Amino acid sequence: MVSPTSTFDLLEQAKNGDREALSRAFEKHRRRLAVLAHFKLGSRTPEFADAEDVVQETCLRAFRDIGHFSYQSPGSFFRWLSAIADHVIVDRVRYRNRECRAGEEVRFRSETNPLGPEPADTKTPSRLLAQREAIERLLDRLNALPEDYRQAILMAKIERLSTAEMAVRLNKPRDAVALLVYRAVKRFRELSDASEA
């Protein structure tokens, strides 16, 4: 039985016009998407605010195109959001120095744009700040890891790839990937415990 707050159920409600359900579906994946966007942006844009901009634009594009999404399995919504984020990042890199991209940006609802979408994030400033600080602490811990550990955690915990999928991507045996993930998570927990002490 699917719980009433599962991604599947929220998306079904959203397709029936429930905007709040769609916002809750985005919120369930926002933190993972921000971390993934931060590392996909890499050194091109080191500011965390750029990753937040990518997440916001990703949510807006997904809001606009939700009718085209088809739920396949657990994780398919996040993979869809991740693919949209990839396009947003490519667009940002490609057009970074251009002044205007008419028709590319999704504008929020306003007096001059009454048919635009509501902002996906309607939380209070203090909640947004707390969420941003939590994500920045997570990013600091991930950045403190060796590159192979960080990539293993991103693939296993953020993208939620199976060890078989990771083995193909990394061109390593599945056992070696499982051991890498174990060591990476262990080291990440050590860093987390040290920062809380």
Features:
8 helices, mainly alpha, Arc Repressor Mutant, subunit A, 2 domains
Determine Rg (CA atoms, Å): 18 Å
How many helices does DSSP assign? 8
Arithmetic mean pLDDT? 75
Beta-strand residue fraction: under 5%
State the domain count.
2
**Mind telling me the CATH class of the largest domain?**
Mainly Alpha
Q: Which structural category fits the helices and strands?
A: mainly alpha
Main beta-sheet strand count, sense and barrel state: none
Strand-and-helix sequence, N→C? HHHHHHHH
Number of strands: 0
Low-confidence stretches: 99-104
Described by its quaternary structure, the protein is single chain
CATH superfamily of the largest domain: RNA polymerase sigma factor, region 2, helix turn helix motif
Structure description:
- This protein is globular.
- The chain is 66% helix and 0% strand.
- Residues 99-104 have low confidence and may be disordered.
- The chain has helices spanning 7-15, 19-41, 48-65, 76-94, 125-143, 147-158, 163-170, 174-196.
- It has 8 helices and no strands.
- The protein is mostly helical and 197 residues long.
- Helix 2 packs across helix 3 (48-65), helix 2 crosses helix 4 (76-94) and helix 7 crosses helix 8 (174-196).
- It folds into 2 domains: 1-123, Orthogonal Bundle (Rna Polymerase Sigma Factor, Chain: A), CATH 1.10.1740.10; 144-197, Arc Repressor Mutant, subunit A.
